[in-house]
Amino acid sequence: MMDKQQQNGSEEWDNLLNHLRQIREQVREQGPLPEHEKEEITNAFHRGLALLESQVRDMAGGMRGSSGQW
Question: What is the rounded distance in angstroms from the CA atom of residue 25 to the CA atom of residue 36?
Fold first, then answer.
């Protein structure tokens, strides 16, 4: 079973991806975004990268080889 932190991280990740997918669909249907929306989406993308980087760091921190080090 996942702990609350993992669950919150997963939910945050899912929400972020869904938001970016919605924007992608909007761009396909309506063309380029206005400047203020581009900034919002760029910020969402950067939040996603930061979240992914944090999760990778957390996973790497928990990985140990047989010698106790990675």
Answer: 18
pTM (predicted TM-score): 0.61
Helix (H/G/I), strand (E/B), else coil: 66: coil
pLDDT tens for 7-54 read 676 888 888 889 889 999 999 999 999 998 899 889 988 988 998 888
Question: Helices (DSSP H) in the chain: which residue ranges?
Answer: 4-30, 35-62
- From residue 50, alpha-carbon distances to 43, 44, 53, 55 in Å are 10, 10, 5, 9
DSSP letter for 67, please: T
Question: Residue 40 to residues 2, 19, 61, 63: CA-CA distances in angstroms?
Answer: 31, 11, 31, 35
Amino acid identity, residue 36? H
> Which phi and psi angles does 66 have, rounded to 5°?
-65, -25
